[in-house]
Amino acid sequence: EDQVTQSPEALRLQEGESSSLNCSYTVSGLRGLFWYRQDPGKGPEFLFTLYSAGEEKEKERLKATLTKKESFLHITAPKPEDSATYLCAVQAEQTGANNLFFGTGTRLTVIP
Amino acid sequence: ETGVTQTPRHLVMGMTNKKSLKCEQHLGHNAMYWYKQSAKKPLELMFVYNFKEQTENNSVPSRFSPECPNSSHLFLHLHTLQPEDSALYLCASSQSLAGGTRSYEQYFGPGTRLTVT
User: Fold this and answer.
1) How far is B11 from chain A (nearest CA, A)?
2) Cβ neighbours of residue A7 under 8 Å, at least 6 residues apart?
3) For residues A6 and A19, what is the distance between their CA atoms, to the nearest angstrom?
4) Does residue A100 sit within a domain?
5) Over 80: is that where the pLDDT of B99 sits?
6) Could you report the per-residue pLDDT of A56-84, keeping only the tens digit for each?
7) Would you state the pLDDT for residue B8?
8) Structural domain of residue A13, as residue ranges?
9) Predicted confidence band at B106 (pLDDT cuts at 50, 70, 90)?
10) Count of structural domains within chain A
11) Could you tell me which of A107, A110, A86 has the C-alpha nearest to residue A33?
């Protein structure tokens, strides 16, 4: 069964303290892996799409990487405005045309 | 307006009421989606539309009735809901449906926070 697991569930960092969020997945053929950011009371905001193992994408202080079993979202020198819930989602080749399987997210808090 | 908009942002309804949620996308996309987000649970896909045609219904109870009059607008009609239906309802759109090895990112609206009393 297709599955997405994110860890940790919650993470508190001091401003400037770099860390990584993990997204482990099991799908029968990965079509794409997506990272989203969600602020309280708002919809998810698209960050990255990764398609194949070894691929990396960067945006400001965020860098997403992908292996055959997991993805990492690295946050370098985070700032308080990076505080949000980060969601990972995968789309498998064999499932319905656009069924994204989401994880439950990592709630990141960056303390000034 | 830009991106994906949803109205109302908050809705409180009784179990016998009938209400509708509205979504509009200003991105020129062809596919639209409804998701349900409950606390501590992953987003659940409810319905998918492509060029106004419904392509997926993930075993959603009939008290939720979607309508897609064109590629830019999507509605979710609600009637005789249960308290467990209280959640954040999110609308999303994408350029197209995934095909072969190609996947399209989905862009989300701000959601409607629904409370059923």
Assistant:
1) 13
2) A21, A22, A24, A106
3) 14
4) no
5) no
6) 999 999 999 999 999 999 999 999 999 99
7) 97
8) 3-95
9) very high
10) 1
11) A86
B108 in contact with A, Cβ within 8 Å: yes
Rounded percentage of chain B residues whose pLDDT exceeds 70? 97
Contacts of B113 in chain A (CB under 8 A): 41
CATH of the domain at A51: 2.60.40.10
Instruction: Say if A103 falls within a structural domain.
Output: no
Q: Are A46 and B99 in contact (CB < 8 Å)?
A: no
The secondary structure of residue A81, as a DSSP letter, is G
**Residue A97: pLDDT above 60?**
no
For A37-69, b/e burial (b = at least 16 CB within 10 A) is: bbeeeebbeebbbbeeeeeeeeeeebbbbbeee
Interface of B with A in 58-97 (CB under 8 A): 58, 90, 92, 94, 97
Chain A residues in contact with B33 (beta carbon < 8 A): 98
Instruction: Verify whether the Cβ–Cβ distance B106 to A45 is below 8 Å.
Output: no
Instruction: Report if residue A9 sits inside a domain.
Output: yes
DSSP letters along chain B, please? Answer: --SEEEE-SEEEE-TT-EEEEEEEE-S--SEEEEEEE-TTS--EEEEEEETTEEEEE-S--TTEEEEEEETTEEEEEEES--GGG-EEEEEEEESS--BTTB----EE---EEEEE-
Residue reference for tokens 């969600």 = A38
